[in-house]
Amino acid sequence: MSEQSRRRPPKPHRRPKKDPVRILAFEALRAVDERDAYANLVLPPLLKKARDKGDFDTRDAALATELVYGTLRRQGTYDAIIAACIDRPLREVDPPVLDVLALGAHQLLGTRIPTHAAVSASVELARVVLGDGRAKFVNAVLRKISQDDLDTWVERVAPPYDEDAEDHLAVVHSHPRWVVSALWDSLGGGRAGIEDLLEADNERPEVTLVARPGRATTGELLDVLGEDSALPGRWSPYAVRLAEGGEPGAIAAVREGRAGVQDEGSQLVAIALANAPLDGSDERWLDGCAGPGGKAALLGALAAGRGATLLASEKQPHRARLVDRALTGNPGPYQVIAADGTRPPWRPGSFDRVLVDVPCSGLGALRRRPEARWRRRPEDLEGFAPLQRNLLREALRAVRVGGVVGYATCSPHLAETRVVVDDVLRGRGGPAPEAELVDARPLMPGVPALGDGPDVQLWPHVHGTDAMYLALLRRTA
Question: How confident is the model over 314-357, as pLDDT tens digits?
């Protein structure tokens, strides 16, 4: 080396380029990891702030949304691939580094972003949020990942199906093994059904609106949106499905509370309870677990059409305020209170219809909250079980003889659905009023594949809804 070469000054330090889209996606993933936040609550305010600053347009917002949700949905698969590309256990990699790597893996394996752009953008992100040293590590790992496509990687890192079916499905479809096992037990059947369900959990769900009766109609919403932007619901007479990219907040009826965002499965649960046959009075309805208010708003509108009154009860005061907001403008009388459904302030036998959409694991809404699959543990169900049973017992006490209770949950897990109902009917864990199951299937006309009854289980891959469960019980004594 010449003397001149030895004296050549080093290259000046280049400041990393800040990419607002990927920085925002990284911030959302960190919030999910550090604060146990939900992406559907964290992402909208971040996007709004970016728009207000002029950093984002519609395409930027769409890309940031895809990066966040795509990374969360496929986190299990990407973790397995990243683990195969490093020389240490995954648990020894700092979580912020893993987030950058997972974002990069998703761009390489789950989007159409060119390889060089995915790697360079991820390395620049690492330089901004991690520093130059760890950016070199990110660069090395992502270059290894970029050498093969997703199918090749999955074939390499997933155990063969014949050797361990549940672990194979867990890696291929990015679900914890215990969730695969629980869903398979609930679904029954062979390999095709469970693979269809797991794949449906990894698809972006449609945005569905509900036209609240007496306040808006599906015809009004369809006329406003136009045939290119919306379609009628598949099953609910009050549902309208938005085309991809539709913005509910831009619709006047939604801003005014005459319509709302509500999955069609949730609509079907409320409609079935409202239409269950009764003998005698039909004047007082109760939503015993009303937060955040979607089902309460639909029930309130349906009750008003019959001259009935709705009492909406929610234990948490801040959620009760959301219920009150959802019911504002309801065409008939209603009341919202903050009360514990396991220690209710109302007198037994006060109501003709009662809904309890109980707190649960949320395994039926993994399309909307993909991070829940990584957050939940099998032992969580042991904590939910006593609460679910107590809420159903108190709901049966709240309804009059001959009245109907709807037990609903956004989970297909047998321990949260049929086992709870069976235990309460048999008096396991505590006495409950005598009751009988009502066949819920005729109350969802036109909806196929509802099972053997009398309860109903909806499925994302069959019905295009969240995996809502409904059992209807009539108090007999």
Answer: 999 999 999 999 999 999 999 999 999 999 999 999 999 999 99
Query: Could you give the residue ranges of the DSSP H alpha helices within 371-427?
Result: 372-375, 380-398, 418-425
pLDDT digits (tens, 9 = 90+) for 49-106: 988 888 788 889 999 999 999 999 999 999 999 999 999 999 999 999 999 999 999 9
CB-based contact 359:387 (threshold 8 Å): yes
User: CA-to-CA distance for 326 and 298, rounded, in angstroms?
Assistant: 9
Give buried/exposed letters for 189-200 (b at 16+ CB in 10 A, else e). Answer: eeeebbebbbeb
- Whether 85 is catalytic is no
Burial of 156 per CB tally in 10 Å (0-12, 13-18, 19+) = exposed
* Residue 356: its H or E element: strand 351-357
Catalytic residue among 85, 289, 360, 410: 410
Q: Given CA atoms 458, 459, 465, 469 in this order, what sign does their dihedral have?
A: positive
Grouping H, G, I as helix, E, B as strand and the rest as coil, residue 1 is coil
Give the number of other Cβ atoms within 10 Å of residue 53's Cβ.
Answer: 9
Output the CA torsion sign for 86, 78, 363, 291: positive
Q: Which two tokens stand for residue 43?
A: 């992402």
Pick from 120, 169, 124, 168: nearest CA to 146:
120
Q: Which amino acid is at 241?
A: R
What residues contact residue 470 under an 8 Å CB cut-off, 6+ apart? 268, 269, 272, 273, 406, 407, 408, 440, 455, 456
Helices 75-83 and 132-145 cross at an angle (nearest 10°) of: 100
